[in-house]
Design brief:
By secondary structure, the protein is an alpha/beta fold. It has three domains: 4-49 and 148-317, 3-Layer(aba) Sandwich (Rossmann fold); 51-141, Rossmann fold; 323-399, Alpha-Beta Plaits (2-Layer Sandwich). It has 15 helices and 14 strands.
C-alpha cells in the first residue's frame, strides 16, 4: 500500500524535473456550481498530462537497477509520452508498445521525446502483453497505473493541492486505471482526513463503479468515448483498495456532458482539455458531483493532449447543441433576386452564414425551384428562432432544428 511518506519522497525526487502546475480559481465555474471552484491544470504539465509524474518517480527511484536496455511501457497516449519524457530526462532508453489504432499525433509525440515506438495489437491489453514479453529481455516495465512508485508520483498532485489550498473541501479526479485518484486520495487524506475525494468515470467504461459494486476489480465492456484517457476496462489491483477505502464515491458522466465541459473550458477559461481532463467539470455540470454549496472544490484537469480533428468535431457539435449554429433548409424559386433577398434578411437579422449549398434538380422540388441548405452562426436558440420568424414573415418556407 502506498503511504503519505512514499508520496512525499516521490515529491522530493521529481520536483526538479516537473512543472508545479497552477491552481486557478474560476469565477465563472464558481457561479455555475454555487461553490468556489478551482482548476488544477495538469494539462500544462510536461508532456501535456500528469503521467510524467508517475513515470519519473518510477525511473528515478529505480535508476540504479535499470540496465542498458532501459524501460518499456504500454500505452495508447499520455503514459507513452510521460515514460518517453522521463527516460529522456534520466538519460536511458525507452520502448513504448502502442496499439495499432493509437493516434498518429501521439505516436509522433512519443517518438519526438526519444522513445522507440512499437505498434502491436488491437487492444491495450495486447500491447501490455507484448511489453511484458520485452521486459523479460532486460527492460524494466513501467506500468501505467498498477505500480506503487507510479501511484506515489501521481499523488504529488495531492500534495500541491493541499499546499496551495489547505482549506479545500472536495477534490474531483478522473478515474481510469485508478492510479491518479489513488495517489491523490492518499496524499490528501494523509494531510487532511476531512477532504472529500470524488472519482469520475465515463459511462462508456465504468470499471471502477463496477469494481466497487462487485467488491473487487472486474473487467467491463466499453464503448468509444471522448474520454479515451480513462477508457480502462479494469481498475488496478493496487489502486482498488484505495478507491474503496479513501474515495467517497465514483460517479459516471455521459458523452454530452464531457463534450459540454471540454467546450466550456476552452471558451470560458481558454483551457484546452482532453475528454478525461474535462470529466470532473462534466460531473459538476451534470449535478452528479455532489458539491456542497459554498464549499471549496478542486477539479483535476488531468491532461490536454487532444487531437486537432477531434477538437474540431467537439467544437462543431457543441455549437450545434447549444443552439449557436443553425442548420436551415429552404426551397425557393430559382429566379434572379430570390436568393439574394433571403441572404439579405438573414444578414439584417444578425445571422452569419458559414456554409450554403444549392440543390437543383432534387426530387420533389420541380424544375423552377432550388433547395438550399444553410449553416448559420447565431447568438443562441432565441436568435435562431428570430431568424426563422423573419424569413417566414417574408414568405420563405424554411425548416430546421432550433426553429420551433
Amino acid at each position: 500500500m502506498v503511504t503519505l511518506p512514499d508520496i512525499e519522497a516521490a515529491g522530493t525526487l521529481i520536483r526538479p524535473h516537473i512543472i508545479r502546475t497552477p491552481l486557478v480559481h474560476s469565477p465563472t465555474l464558481s457561479a455555475m456550481a454555487g461553490a468556489e471552484v478551482y482548476l488544477k491544470l495538469e494539462s500544462m504539465q510536461k508532456g501535456g498530462s500528469f503521467k510524467v509524474r508517475g513515470a519519473l518517480a518510477h525511473v528515478f527511484s529505480r535508476r540504479d537497477r535499470i540496465g542498458p536496455a532501459g524501460i518499456v511501457a504500454a500505452s495508447a497516449g499520455n503514459h507513452a509520452q510521460g515514460v518517453a519524457l522521463a527516460a529522456r530526462l534520466a538519460g536511458i532508453p525507452a520502448t513504448v508498445v502502442m496499439p495499432a489504432w493509437a493516434s498518429i499525433s501521439k505516436q509522433a509525440a512519443t517518438r519526438a521525446y526519444g522513445a522507440e515506438v512499437i505498434l502491436h495489437g488491437t487492444s491495450l491489453e495486447e500491447s501490455l502483453d507484448r511489453a511484458r514479453e520485452l521486459a523479460t529481455g532486460g527492460r524494466i516495465l513501467v506500468h501505467a497505473y498498477d505500480d506503487p512508485l507510479v501511484i506515489a508520483g501521481q499523488g504529488t498532485i495531492g500534495l500541491e493541492i493541499h499546499e496551495d489550498l489547505p482549506s479545500v473541501d472536495q477534490v474531483i479526479v478522473p478515474v481510469g486505471g485508478g492510479g491518479l485518484v489513488a495517489g491523490i486520495a492518499t496524499a490528501l487524506r494523509g494531510r487532511n482526513p476531512g477532504v472529500r475525494v470524488t472519482g469520475v468515470q465515463a459511462a462508456a467504461c465504468p470499471s471502477a463503479v463496477e469494481a466497487l459494486r462487485a467488491g473487487k476489480p472486474v473487467t467491463v465492456g466499453s464503448r468509444p468515448t471522448l474520454a479515451d484517457g480513462i477508457r480502462v476496462r479494469r481498475v488496478g489491483d493496487l489502486s482498488f483498495p484505495v478507491i474503496r477505502d479513501l474515495v467517497d464515491r465514483v460517479v459516471l458522466v455521459d458523452e454530452d456532458a464531457i463534450a459540454d465541459a471540454m467546450l466550456l473550458l476552452l471558451e470560458r477559461k481558454k483551457v484546452l482539455s482532453e475528454g478525461a481532463g474535462a470529466a470532473p467539470l462534466a460531473a459538476v455540470l451534470s449535478g452528479s458531483a455532489g458539491i456542497v454549496p459554498g464549499s471549496r472544490v478542486v477539479l483535476v484537469v488531468s491532461g490536454g493532449n487532444l487531437d486537432i480533428p477531434l477538437l474540431e468535431r467537439v467544437i462543431r457539435w457543441g455549437l450545434v447543441r447549444t443552439g449557436r449554429v443553425l442548420h436551415l433548409t429552404a426551397t425557393i424559386d430559382d429566379a434572379p433576386g430570390t436568393l439574394s433577398g433571403m441572404l439579405s434578411l438573414i444578414g439584417s437579422a444578425g445571422g452569419n452564414i458559414l456554409h450554403i449549398h444549392h440543390g437543383r434538380g432534387d426530387p420533389g422540388i420541380g424544375v423552377t425551384a432550388v433547395r438550399l441548405d444553410l449553416v448559420i452562426e447565431t447568438r443562441g436558440p432565441d436568435h435562431s428562432r428570430r431568424i426563422g420568424d423573419e424569413l417566414r414573415k417574408h414568405g420563405y418556407a424554411v425548416s430546421g432544428s432550433g426553429l420551433e
